[in-house]
C-alpha cells in the first residue's frame, strides 16, 4: 500500500517537473526577447507592446519622470522619480584575447555606477547583445515581438533607412534633444552632421562623429619587409607592374615556404572587393551615385571588371590560394604567422595578437606597413585612390516603442558620455590598470594580458560602448592619435609609427586631390537595396569566384555572363531606384573636387 | 476485393473514460507532457501562418499589417531563386531518400547476423556516434579532409601516386553532390538502424526455427523471414520520409557551403533564411514554409494511399 502511494507521488512529481520545464522553455527568455517593462513609471509614458505607430506620432514631452531640464545639459539633469530602464544594444565580437562579456562586465557596471545610479536609470546592456554582423537579424527578431531596445544603431546608413521603412524608428524633436544634450548636438553641428538627421522627411537620426573621416589610416596592411629587401626592392611598390615583379621574385626565392604568397579567404557580406583604385577620377557623378558605394559590390562596372581581371591574373599566377573560397578569416592569421603569406591586414592598435604570434614564430623577420604615396595614376590606369571613412560615426535612431522617459534617459546618456572626462575614461580605462602615460604625456594602452582581468577593457578599448559618441578616439593631435594606435613593443614598432604617419599623409593628399570620395548617401530609403542586397552578397561571391578562378582566356566570357545574372538578380533594380533618387536630388552632396564637371 | 485476414475471436470489454482514468491516471498524467509539447510547439504557432497572406511588418504586428491575399505566393512563385531552390531541394531529397533509406535496413540486417555480442555492441555504438555530431563539426572536418590540394585524403592519394591532382570533393558541384549525399548517409545510417533492429527482435523466433528445419540458409532466412517481418516498419518510415522531401536542413547545407557549389547547395532552407530572416521578409519565409508543409502532407497522404492499395497497413 505504502509502495503504491510512493509510486503515485513520484508519478505526480515527475509530471509536474516535466510540465514546468516545458512551460518554462516556452517563456520569454531574457536573451532573445527581453521582457523588461518599459519604465512608464509616470507622466503617462506609453507601454512597450502596443503598435508602435500610435506612439510614434508624438515627440517626447518634457513632463515626465524627471523634472524638466530648465538648465540645458548635464547641469540640469535631475534623477527620475521612478527607475527608468535604458536598453542599449552592444556588439559581441570574437574575443581571441579573452575580453569580457560585452553586456556584463566591469565597464557596464561602471556606467551604471557613474551614470545610472545618479539619475535612477537602469542601464541594461545584458539583454541586448548583438553578435557583430547579425544586426539586421537581431533588430528584426526584437521588432517581431514589438520589443526593441531604446535605440537602434548601425554604422551603415542603408541599415537605418531599412529600419525606418520597417517602422522601427521614432521621430524626435531637435529642440527637445538640444536642451538635454547640448554637448552632443554641438559636436554634430561642428562636424556638419546635423544636416543629415532626416530619412524620408522625418527627423529620426542622431549621428556620432568620426574623427579623420577623410582617411582610413587606422586600417593597416603589414607586409614582410625582409622579403621585399631579399627580393632586391627598397620599399613596397605601389605600381601594379612592380608588384608583379616583386611577387615573381619572392616566389623564385621560395620565401613563402611553399604557400601562396597572397593567401586568400572566402569573401562574403558587404564591403568586399572595393574598386576605388580602379575608378576613373574625377568621377562621373551619376555613376558614383548609382554604383559608387561599397554596400553592394558593383559587378557590372568597368572598375569592378578591372579589379576582377587583376585578381584573375594573380590567381592564375598561383599567388592566391586555390582553396581560398573554402577558408575562413582565421586562415589569414595562421598563414601569415606560419610565414606562408606576404601580407596581413587589420585595424591597428597598441597590441595586436597576430603580431605577437608572428614575431614569436618568426623572430628574425621584419614587417612594414603599406603606405599610400599620395595621388598617383599608374601606366595601367589604376591609381592610389581608396575608400575614406565618412564623417559619420554611428547612425542612431530612437526605437518606435521607446517611451518618453526612455528617450530622455538616452539623451542624458549621450550627453553624459560626451563629457571629456567620461569619454576619456571609457576610451582608455584607468591609469595603471588599463593604460600608462608615455614620456610625451599620451596614454598608451596596456596589453590585455597585462590588465587586471576584472577590469579589462572590451573590444578595441570599449569602442562598442563609446561608439555612439565618436567612432574613433582622438587626443586632438594627429601625431598623438597615430601613436595611440601604433603597435608597441615589437621589433619594428618605430617603423610602424613612421609608416602609419606617411600613410595618413598620403591618404590626405589623395583626398584633397579628389581621389577619395565618400560613398553616396541617399536621404530616402532605397527599397530595392533592402530587398535584394542579401541575395546579391551571395550571388556576387559565387560569380566573382567563378570569374577569378577561371582561366584568363575565359575571363571576358565569364564576366559578361556574370554581369547579366547579377543585374537580373536585383542589381538593375537597385541602380534604377538610385538613379531616380539621384535625379530627384535626394542624396547628400559632396565636394566638387571629386566629380567631373 | 479486400484481402481476407484471419480473425481471432475477441471479447469486447466496455471501458468508460471514468474507469480508464481512475485505473491509469498516472499514465494519462504522463501523457499530458508530450501533448502539451505538441500543442505548444506545433499547433500554437498555427495562427502565425496568416503572415503568409499579409504584407507583414514586425513592428506593426498582425493587427497593423495589411492583408494581401495570395500576393506573397504569387511573388515567390515568380522568383527564379525560388524555382532553383525548389528544384535542388526536390532533387537532393529524393537522392537522399534513394541512397540513404536502404542503408539502415541493410545495416540492421547485417548487425542482426552478428553473433559475437561484444563486437556487435561496439559496432552499434560506433555507428550511432555520427548522429550526435553537429553538422558544423562534420562540415569543418570534411573540408579539412577533402580540400583538393591540402586535404588529408587528396594528400595521401597523391603521395602514393594514385592520383596526379586533387579531387575537388567539395569544390566542384557534381563531386560536391556525391560527397554531400554520402556524408549524409554516413551521419544518419547508424541511428536509423535502431527502429529496424527493434522490429527485428519482435519477429517470432519459431519462424526462423521452421526455416532451419526446411533447410534455409542465412540469406534465405533474411529474405523470407526477416525482411517480411519488418516490412510494416519499412513502409511506415518510407511514408514518413516521403513527407520530408520538400524539407531541407539549413545546418547541413551551411556546413558544406562554398561559392563553387552554389548551383546545387541553394535549397529551400537557404532561400527561406536569406529572403526571410536575412532580408526581414517574414511573410515570404512563412509562405515558403507553408508551401513546403502542404506539399509534404499531400505526399504523405498519397503514399499512404498507395501503400494501402498495395495491401500494406499504411501510416494513417
Task: Indicate the topology.
The complex is a heterodimer of chains A (about 600) and B (about 325).
Chain A: H1 2-26, H2 52-56, E1 84-87, E2 90-92, H3 106-119, E3 121-124, E4 129-131, H4 135-144, E5 151-154, H5 157-165, E6 169-170, H6 174-180, H7 182-190, E7 198-199, E8 202-203, E9 205-209, E10 219-224, H8 225-230, H9 240-253, H10 285-291, H11 302-316, H12 330-337, E11 343-347, H13 353-361, E12 367-369, E13 392-399, H14 404-418, H15 420-428, E14 435-437, E15 443-445, H16 459-466, H17 478-485, H18 493-512, H19 527-549, H20 555-583
Parallel strand pairs in A: 1-3, 2-4
Antiparallel strand pairs in A: 5-13, 6-13, 7-8, 9-13, 10-11, 10-12, 14-15
Helix pairs in contact in A: 6-7, 10-20, 11-19, 12-13, 15-16, 19-20
Chain B: H1 17-43, E1 54-55, H2 61-64, E2 66-67, H3 71-78, H4 80-100, H5 102-113, H6 117-128, H7 135-146, H8 152-159, H9 173-201, H10 205-213, H11 218-229, H12 231-242, H13 250-255, H14 262-265, H15 268-278, H16 282-309
Antiparallel strand pairs in B: 1-2
Helix pairs in contact in B: 3-16, 4-9, 4-15, 5-9, 6-9, 12-16, 15-16
Task: Tag the structure with descriptive keywords.
heterodimer, A: 597 residues, alpha+beta, D-Maltodextrin-Binding Protein, domain 2, 2 domains, 3-stranded antiparallel sheet, 15 strands, B: 316 residues, mainly alpha, MetI-like fold, two-stranded antiparallel sheet, 16 helices, 2 strands, 68% helix, flat, disordered N terminus
Describe the structure.
The complex is a heterodimer of chains A (597) and B (316). Chain A has 597 residues and is of the alpha+beta class. Chain A has 20 helices and 15 strands. In chain A, the strands form six sheets. In chain A, strands 5, 6, 9 and 13 form a four-stranded antiparallel sheet that branches. In chain A, strands 11-10-12 form a three-stranded antiparallel sheet. A two-stranded parallel ribbon of chain A has the order 1-3. In chain A, a hairpin with a 2-residue loop joins strand 7 and strand 8. Chain A is globular, with a radius of gyration of 27 Å. The N and C termini of chain A lie far apart (100 Å). Residues 17-59 and 61-65 of chain A have low confidence and may be disordered. Chain B has 16 helices and two strands. Chain B is flat. In chain B, helix 3 crosses helix 16, helix 4 (80-100) packs across helix 9 and helix 15 (268-278) packs antiparallel against helix 16 (282-309). At the A-B interface, helix 1, helix 4 and helix 19 of A face helix 1, helix 2 and helix 15 of B.
Amino acid at each position: 500500500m505504502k509502495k503504491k502511494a510512493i509510486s503515485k507521488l513520484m508519478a505526480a512529481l515527475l509530471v509536474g517537473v516535466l510540465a514546468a520545464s516545458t512551460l518554462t522553455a516556452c517563456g520569454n527568455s531574457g536573451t532573445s526577447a527581453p521582457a523588461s517593462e518599459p519604465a512608464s513609471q509616470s507622466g503617462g509614458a506609453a507601454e512597450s507592446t502596443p503598435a508602435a505607430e500610435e506612439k510614434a506620432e508624438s515627440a517626447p514631452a518634457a513632463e515626465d519622470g524627471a523634472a524638466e531640464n530648465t538648465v540645458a545639459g548635464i547641469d540640469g539633469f535631475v534623477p527620475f522619480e521612478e527607475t527608468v530602464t535604458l536598453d542599449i544594444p552592444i556588439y559581441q565580437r570574437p574575443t581571441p584575447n579573452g575580453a569580457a562579456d560585452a553586456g556584463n562586465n566591469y565597464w557596464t557596471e561602471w556606467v551604471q555606477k557613474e551614470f545610472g545610479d545618479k539619475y535612477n536609470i537602469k542601464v541594461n546592456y545584458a539583454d541586448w547583445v548583438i553578435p557583430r554582423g547579425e544586426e539586421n537579424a537581431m533588430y528584426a527578431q526584437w521588432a517581431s515581438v514589438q520589443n526593441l531596445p531604446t535605440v537602434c544603431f548601425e554604422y551603415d546608413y542603408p541599415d537605418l533607412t531599412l529600419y525606418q521603412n520597417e517602422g522601427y524608428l521614432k521621430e524626435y524633436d531637435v529642440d527637445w534633444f538640444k536642451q538635454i544634450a547640448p554637448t552632443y548636438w554641438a559636436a554634430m553641428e561642428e562636424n556638419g552632421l546635423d544636416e543629415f538627421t532626416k530619412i524620408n522627411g522625418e527627423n529620426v537620426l542622431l549621428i556620432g562623429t568620426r574623427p579623420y573621416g577623410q582617411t582610413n589610416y587606422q586600417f593597416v596592411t603589414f607586409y614582410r619587409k625582409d622579403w621585399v629587401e631579399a627580393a632586391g626592392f627598397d620599399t613596397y611598390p605601389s605600381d601594379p607592374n612592380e608588384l608583379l615583379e616583386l611577387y615573381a621574385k619572392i616566389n623564385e626565392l621560395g620565401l613563402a615556404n611553399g604557400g601562396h604568397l597572397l593567401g586568400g579567404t572566402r569573401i562574403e557580406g558587404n564591403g568586399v572587393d572595393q574598386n576605388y583604385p580602379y575608378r576613373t577620377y574625377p568621377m562621373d557623378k551619376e555613376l558614383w551615385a548609382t554604383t559608387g558605394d561599397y554596400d553592394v559590390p558593383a559587378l557590372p562596372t568597368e572598375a569592378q571588371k578591372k579589379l576582377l581581371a587583376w585578381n584573375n591574373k594573380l590567381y592564375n599566377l598561383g599567388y592566391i590560394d586555390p582553396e581560398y573560397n573554402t577558408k575562413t578569416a582565421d586562415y589569414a592569421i595562421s598563414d601569415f604567422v606560419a610565414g606562408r603569406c606576404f601580407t596581413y591586414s587589420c585595424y591597428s592598435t597598441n597590441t595586436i595578437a597576430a603580431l605577437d604570434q608572428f614575431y614569436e614564430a618568426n623572430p628574425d623577420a621584419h614587417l612594414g606597413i603599406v603606405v599610400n604615396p599620395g595621388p598617383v595614376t599608374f601606366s595601367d590606369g589604376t591609381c592610389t585612390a581608396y575608400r575614406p571613412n565618412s564623417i559619420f560615426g554611428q547612425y542612431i535612431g530612437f526605437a518606435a516603442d521607446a517611451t518618453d522617459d526612455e528617450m530622455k534617459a538616452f539623451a542624458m546618456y549621450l550627453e553624459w558620455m560626451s563629457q571629456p572626462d567620461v569619454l576619456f575614461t571609457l576610451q582608455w580605462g584607468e591609469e595603471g590598470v588599463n593604460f600608462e602615460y608615455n614620456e610625451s604625456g599620451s596614454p598608451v594602452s596596456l596589453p590585455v594580458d597585462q590588465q587586471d582581468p576584472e577590469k579589462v577593457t572590451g573590444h578595441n578599448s570599449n569602442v562598442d560602448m563609446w561608439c555612439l559618441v565618436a567612432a574613433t578616439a582622438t587626443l586632438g593631435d594627429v601625431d598623438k592619435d597615430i601613436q595611440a594606435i601604433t603597435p608597441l613593443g615589437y621589433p619594428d614598432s618605430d617603423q610602424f609609427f613612421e609608416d602609419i604617419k606617411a600613410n595618413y599623409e598620403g591618404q590626405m593628399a589623395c583626398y584633397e586631390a579628389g581621389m577619395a570620395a565618400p560613398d553616396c548617401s541617399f536621404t530616402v530609403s532605397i527599397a530595392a537595396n533592402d530587398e535584394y542586397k542579401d541575395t546579391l552578397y551571395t550571388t556576387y561571391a559565387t560569380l566573382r569566384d567563378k570569374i577569378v578562378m577561371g582561366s584568363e582566356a575565359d575571363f571576358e566570357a565569364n564576366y559578361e555572363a556574370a554581369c547579366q545574372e547579377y543585374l537580373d538578380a536585383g542589381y538593375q533594380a537597385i541602380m534604377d531606384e538610385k538613379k531616380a533618387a539621384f535625379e530627384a536630388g535626394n542624396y547628400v552632396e559632396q565636394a566638387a573636387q571629386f566629380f567631373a564637371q | 476485393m479486400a484481402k481476407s485476414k484471419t480473425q481471432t475471436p475477441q471479447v469486447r470489454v466496455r471501458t468508460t473514460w471514468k474507469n480508464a482514468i481512475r485505473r491509469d491516471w498516472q499514465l494519462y498524467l504522463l501523457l499530458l507532457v508530450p501533448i502539451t509539447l505538441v500543442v505548444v510547439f506545433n499547433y500554437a504557432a498555427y495562427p502565425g501562418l496568416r503572415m503568409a497572406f499579409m504584407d507583414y511588418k514586425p513592428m506593426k504586428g498582425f493587427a497593423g499589417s495589411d492583408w494581401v491575399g495570395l500576393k506573397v505566393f504569387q511573388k515567390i512563385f515568380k522568383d527564379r531563386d525560388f524555382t532553383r531552390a525548389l528544384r535542388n531541394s526536390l532533387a537532393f531529397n529524393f537522392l537522399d531518400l534513394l541512397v540513404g533509406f536502404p542503408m539502415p535496413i541493410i545495416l540492421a540486417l547485417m548487425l542482426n547476423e552478428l553473433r559475437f555480442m561484444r563486437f556487435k555492441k561496439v559496432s552499434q555504438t560506433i555507428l550511432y556516434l555520427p548522429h550526435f555530431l553537429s553538422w558544423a563539426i562534420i562540415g569543418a572536418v570534411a573540408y579539412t579532409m577533402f580540400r583538393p590540394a591540402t586535404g588529408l585524403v587528396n594528400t595521401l592519394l597523391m603521395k602514393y601516386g594514385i592520383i596526379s591532382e586533387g579531387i575537388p570533393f567539395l569544390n566542384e558541384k557534381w563531386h560536391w553532390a556525391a560527397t554531400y549525399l554520402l556524408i549524409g548517409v554516413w551521419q544518419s545510417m547508424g541511428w536509423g538502424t535502431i527502429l529496424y533492429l527493434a522490429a527485428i527482435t519482435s519477429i517470432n523466433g519459431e519462424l526462423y526455427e521452421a526455416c532451419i528445419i526446411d533447410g534455409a540458409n542465412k540469406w534465405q532466412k533474411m529474405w523470407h523471414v526477416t525482411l517480411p517481418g519488418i516490412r510494416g516498419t519499412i513502409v511506415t518510415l518510407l511514408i514518413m520520409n516521403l513527407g520530408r522531401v520538400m524539407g531541407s536542413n539549413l545546418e547541413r547545407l551551411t556546413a558544406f557551403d562554398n561559392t563553387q557549389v552554389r548551383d546545387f547547395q541553394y535549397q529551400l532552407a537557404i532561400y527561406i533564411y536569406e529572403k526571410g530572416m536575412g532580408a526581414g521578409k517574414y511573410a515570404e519565409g512563412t509562405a515558403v514554409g507553408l508551401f513546403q508543409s502542404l506539399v509534404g502532407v499531400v505526399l504523405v497522404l498519397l503514399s499512404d494511399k498507395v501503400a494501402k492499395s498495395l495491401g500494406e497497413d499504411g501510416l494513417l
